[in-house]
Design goal:
The protein has 341 residues and is of the alpha/beta class. The chain has nine helices and ten strands. 50% of the residues are buried. It binds 5'-O-[(R)-(carboxyoxy)(hydroxy)phosphoryl]adenosine and zinc ion (ZN).
């Protein structure tokens, strides 16, 4: 079949606790549908088995809605893109099996997407809001719930990892810190909100000294745990009143760890453009401070709109768009890859 130069791509995302589907026509978003899973809130984190079951319930209606909102029939699709990994194996299996069957039934290319590449390609999504798109190469800080990476992006499918976390991800540091404070999952957005009225200097937290472009958040986590435990024991302190300050201190420490490495890598590689993506790039403190860093360094900065920071299927379709154009279809027996390669 000849390849279309303006492909219509369906993207499917099911790596964690969001079932999402989107349609892109030549990189332009026509629909972007997301079904969240509130079932995990009561457990303080994502329960893999419950996530798989919810994906199975949601996937057919979510894909149906994405096609309907886009006004695109199945016979108009040029390719089916899905998240191959990293993620939860049961959750990935639902999307993988669905995409494999659909590509086979429609006889169109199956496009196996790396979720972390997709978080970066979110910068290239075109919608009604005219945003500048980063030219290549650019340096991207990818910060999600499970991963934290500094990536040199030379082309849509040409990326080199320069460094990353040695232990917890930035999103995990937010979520685990929130759990220590008794806040529900996911804690990142709540910490962001509470930190807005707190004094980040009221409590001091240690910052790690790691070589190169790697990062670590486990020492910070341990120190925050000690601080919260001590405060809970003190009769003269009401934890409730300290929440904004504790959130502000934790958020600032995470941001400082991230931005020190971003600055170091940017200077070392002589970059002109920096970008952030992934769920944690929705953080208002990080967004503001990355902007200030870029101004100080004379770099151009790219930050996706909130809808493309956290998990979504438009970014999966965007990655699928480039896989399609470069003729890199997956075989129909492709299996999920739960860990990052
Ligand atoms: O990229 P994402 O939606 O899913 C993964 O690929 O993991 O990222 C989810 C992570 C969670 O840890 C969540 O707490 C964090 O992103 N997050 C935030 C904010 N919004 C989401 N962290 C800090 N501030 C936010 N506003
Ligand atoms: Zn993600």
């Amino acid at each position: 079949m000849p390849r279309s130069t303006t492909p219509v791509i369906l993207g499917i995302e099911s790596s964690c606790d969001e079932t999402a589907a989107a349609v892109l026509v030549n990189g332009h978003v026509r629909s972007n549908v997301i079904a969240g899973q509130s079932v995990h809130q009561q457990w303080g984190g994502v329960v893999p088995e419950l996530a798989s079951r919810a994906h199975q319930e949601h996937i057919v209606p979510v894909v149906h809605q994405a096609l309907q909102e886009a006004g695109v029939g199945m016979d108009q699709l040029d390719g089916i893109a899905f998240t191959r990994g990293p993620g939860l194996i049961g959750a990935l299996l639902v999307g993988t099996c669905f995409a494999r069957s659909m590509a086979q039934a429609l006889d169109v290319p199956l496009l196996a997407v790396d979720h972390l590449q997709a978080h970066i390609l979110a910068h290239l999504i075109i919608d009604s809001d005219a945003r500048p798109v980063p030219a290549f190469p650019f340096l991207n800080l990818t910060v999600s719930g499970g991963h934290t990476l500094l990536v040199m992006v030379r082309g849509p499918l040409d990326m080199e990892v320069l460094g990353g976390t040695l232990d917890d991800a930035a999103g995990e540091a937010f979520d685990k810190g929130a759990k220590m404070l008794g806040l529900p999952y996911p804690g990142g957005p709540l910490i962001d909100r509470l930190a807005a009225t707190g004094d980040p200097k009221r409590y001091s937290l240690p910052l790690p000294a790691i070589q190169g472009f790697d990062m670590s958040f486990s020492g910070l986590k341990a120190a925050f745990h000690r601080l919260v435990t001590d405060l809970k024991r003190r009769a003269d302190v009401e934890l409730e009143h300290e929440l904004p300050h504790l959130c502000a201190a934790l958020q600032q420490a995470i941001i400082t760890i991230l931005l020190r490495k971003l600055q170091k890598a940017g200077r070392f590689h002589g970059v002109k453009r920096i970008a952030i993506s992934g769920g944690v790039s929705a953080n208002s403190g990080l967004r503001a401070q990355v902007q200030q860093l870029a101004e100080r360094e004379g770099w151009e900065v790219f930050i996706p709109p909130l809808a493309y920071c956290t998990d979504n299927a438009a970014m999966i379709a965007m990655a699928g768009h480039h896989l399609y154009l470069s003729g890199r279809a997956a075989s129909l027996d492709v299996v999920p890859m739960p860990r990052h390669a």
